Amino acid sequence: MASSSRKPSRNDNKRALVYALQFNNPYDVALKDKEDKMIVISKARAKLLRVFKTLETEADRNIIPQKAQDQLWWLKWDLHPNDIKKKRISKKMFFIGILSTVLHTIKNELGIHYELLLSRDKDELFCKLYVTESWLIKRAYETDYLLRFRHKKEKWTRSFQEFSPYGPFSLQSKYINTKKILFSQYDSKHLLTNSGGSYFTFNDKVRLISDAIYCKMDLYVLKNYGIMIDAFPLHDNLTLDYLKSEWATMKAFFIPQPLTEIKNYYSEQIAFYFAWMGVYATFMGICSVVGFVVFIILIISSYLKHEGIYTATQVFFCLFLALWGSFFDQFWTRRERELAWQWGTANMTFKEHQREKFEGKFQKDEVTGKMKVLMRESEKRNIKKTVSFVVIAFLIIVVIAMVIAIFRLRVLMKSTDDLKDYGSIVPALIYAIQISIFDLIYSKVSVWLNNLENHETMNIYNNSLAFKLFLFRFINSYCGLFYIAFIKMYQSSDQCTENGCMYDLGFQLSIIFITNMILNIIELGLPWFLYKFRVRWEERRIKQLNEMNANIRKELYQVETESKYEPYENPIEDYMEMALQFGFVALFGSSFPLLPILALIEILIEIRVDSWKLCNITRRPEPVQSESIGIWKNIIVFIAYFGAVTNSGIVVFTSGALNNFSYSTRVLIFIIIEHAFVFGIATVSYLTPDCSKVVRKGITWCERVTHNKTLGKLIDDSIKLEKRDSLDATFRFYFNKNDIRYQEE
């Protein structure tokens, strides 16, 4: 093609399977009622126009494919107004008309190849989307898509030049009349190659094809109309098999994670999560070693009755945990920046579409001149946020009341002879279970509140949801532990055991932690059971259909199998679980020195289980670009600072080390220690650069290279992208049963 500088490759026209659209089958015999139900033409026109992001009053005739205007009589612009208002068509005709228009647009307007497959039970259609290298090149030019420059080993020899910068693909036009290739190329395994590869990783292909479809049509509207079921990227078996064998297995328990491969196959967002988990596991390993040594010293000193050594060891572990949390945050900040540099996302501006469920008035945006959903002027955002605050406050009050009731139950059981022996374990178990139950309830409530607030983009939505979840779960998970650590010692009716409040705190903490581990293991199996349930339900239906028709296909298509998997939306719950675990260790770990070992085991298992879920029982997620872990870094920083305050309090009030001092003196000592910790952490954070000198130079160099190449781009009006044919003359507009394949693959 005219815009490519390299030699034509036989792979340019080789089709790569990238994406799938899942529709309800309009020819399904179980949907005969659609033939009887009618829809007014005005509504049918409005719905079709809305799919293509326009309205009857704003309609640009070029938006709707000319072929659709010619073939759909009810869509013709010269149709009499009375016919539009009064005449009706069947829902089946409407269904087929929209689906035919969508397929025509994909094939002839966007130039994307597709193949229609019928599901085994014949109630769904799968539209497999294929793209060629030439299509991807054309689309990348049109959108100024950012790709990584080819690395110049002979010129870029400095340490900060190890990773090539990214730049808009249109820069390749500077070398239109040369054989020079400006950007990196990848082989079938998405690894860098010197020649004969593709400019695009699989994630690039998914982003380009989904963006092309989104710019033309609104898939969420198709879902609302009951025409489309879902849309999702498809797995690449070659790369997936590698990740299954080298990453998503217990055999790789202590092997470093292939972060670059994870980034290339899934996304930067997911790779950042697993990178953070890896750093977290390393620091928890350090904490586990120290905790184990502390535990041994405590056992020996307790046996030898050396109270001074026992207390001093507890105080040391408190101080260690206060600093440990801060060092973890500092180390991760530098590692995060380093990865953003390596992956080319540092300081990158990411393109975000409107959230599918964002509600408002669909109209022309005066700024961009494009049709989009705009916030209604009557939208009472502040009122909705107030409602959220009131609901959250109410639930927090309920949680505190539940905790008080549980500890009152403990007092009651302790004072009853028949129940005295169970006075510790039963309330502790009830409290641990109560935490899990309220977490589950609030997860549903927080999603409802977040939807009520009507956030426009997914990033804002996720940040708001994460904040709500953490605020509630922080109080739900820790308020009982704060009571034991700092209030219980002053309650005459609920005194600590003879071993002290540190023992009670450690006992409650261990019960909560072990209960959470058991519940998490049960929860991790839920996606697998849901997948098995869908398959079983499908097999039962197939058995019924086989009794009526022996020609039912026995095996599922690969795309059909993937459609049964649970969708993977984002790692919010995964982050939340680990952030709370970090809080248990950083805030109260001094009361149970073996807790870091349990936490480390859970982290290592969580990494493998999460990776196994991604590779085996969830759909391939949409690739989301990112330069950090987002709001979760702020949450980790908050926990680290709060851990300094909590551990200062445990040293002064709970450990018993300063019991010889008066209460007012202890308060003064607490304020001094706490301020010293917070000031020290803040000073270290301020003086420690967020990234190394090499990374800082590397980011600056990448930006300069891209800027210089952009300024030096040769603009030649004679260079034109070849115009895509608007219509394939052999393409029939209406699709029918003969266009749908049902045979075995």
Poorly predicted ranges? 1-8, 714-727
Number of helices: 23
* Average pLDDT: 83
Quaternary status: single chain
Count the strands? 13
Strand order of the largest sheet: 10-1-5-4-13
Helix/strand-derived class? alpha+beta
Shape: globular
Instruction: Give the count of structural domains.
Output: 2
Query: Strand-residue fraction?
Result: 5-15%
Please outline the major beta sheet.
5 strands, mixed
Taking the alpha carbons of the first and last residues, their distance comes to: 33 Å
Helix content: 55-70%
Radius of gyration: 30 Å
Organism: Stentor coeruleus
Coiled coil: 535-562
InterPro entries: Anoctamin, Anoctamin_TM
Protein name: Anoctamin transmembrane domain-containing protein
What can you see in these coordinates?
It contains 23 helices and 13 strands. It folds into two domains: 130 residues, no CATH class; 447 residues, no CATH class. The protein is globular. A five-stranded mixed beta sheet has the order 10-1-5-4-13. Strands 2-3 form a two-stranded antiparallel sheet. A two-stranded antiparallel ribbon has the order 6-7. Helix content is 57%, strand content 7%. The N terminus is likely disordered. It has 745 residues and is an alpha+beta fold. InterPro entries: Anoctamin, Anoctamin_TM. One of its GO terms (cellular component) is membrane. Keywords: Coiled coil, Membrane, Transmembrane, Transmembrane helix.
Secondary structure layout:
Elements lengths: L15 E9 L8 H4 L1 E3 H11 L14 H6 L9 H6 L1 E3 H19 L3 E6 L5 E8 L1 H11 L2 E3 L17 E3 L16 E2 L5 E2 L8 H15 L2 H6 L3 E6 L3 H10 L12 H7 L2 H37 L2 H36 L18 E4 L6 E4 L6 H34 L10 H29 L4 H30 L13 H24 L1 H23 L9 H6 L8 H17 L6 H22 L14 H24 L8 H25 L5 H19 L28 E2 L4
Helix pairs in contact: 10-11, 11-12, 11-20, 12-19, 12-21, 13-14, 13-15, 14-15, 14-16, 15-19, 15-21, 16-20, 19-20, 19-21, 21-22
